[in-house]
Task: structure prediction
Amino acid sequence: MAEKNKNQTAQERARLRETLGAQASNRFCSAGACPSREQPILKKDLYPIVMAYPRRTVFYHRSCTTALN
Result:
């Protein structure tokens, strides 16, 4: 059985990361102007922000956080 080289294992990790990122999470976007607010956020687009007071975590799409500024 031949061992895999670094490029082959890196490609496998990249494919795994891509498939995991395409899965839907159980979180929804908290941005008021989000067009897909009722649909779950994909794991690759998930952007958690921890609020100081009250201490809680809210979730946004990556694109919605740049629109907040």
Remarks:
- Helices lie at 6-21, 62-68.
- The longest strand covers residues 46-51.
- Residues 6-21 form the longest helix (16 residues).
- The mean pLDDT is 84.
